[in-house]
Amino acid sequence: xxxxxxxxxxxxxxxxxxxxxxxxxxxxxxxxxxxxxxxxxxxxxxxxxxxxxxxxxxxxxxxxxxxxxxxxxxxxxxxxxxxxxxxxxxxxxxxxxxxxxxxxxxxxxxxxxxxxxxxxxxxxxxxxxxxxxxxxxxxxxxxxx
Length: 145
Prior knowledge:
Shape: extended
Helix content: 40-55%
Number of strands: 6
Mean pLDDT: 85
Oligomer: single chain
Number of helices: 3
Number of domains: 2
Strand content: 15-25%
Structural class: alpha+beta
Distance between the termini: 63 Å
Strand order of the largest sheet: 1-4-5-6
Radius of gyration: 22 Å
């Protein structure tokens, strides 16, 4: 691929975004409504469309294996400020691991010390309750035999 093609595609994409956002702004009376529509409608539509296309590419290139584990060495966080409605994106040097048990984030404190946050899924919480004797009092399949 020529180096000019990504640049040309970026220009076309920028033009497309300006047209779509311009139409949205013409039909919207105030900034708060405009930002809300962008965040709740257009941005989500963009993310959904992109995800579908990437999944199709993964299948076409033989990369559509079922994922039991998702890992990344950095993450991108997107937040919307409650007061202004402005959207901010930050790439962070946080290791990300996701399984059926939940999400684990590994990073460092401001002092450079390792830090981990584990966000457990309902599935993991149920397993923990069961293993520690706090789960439902139901027999195992092998106990029925």
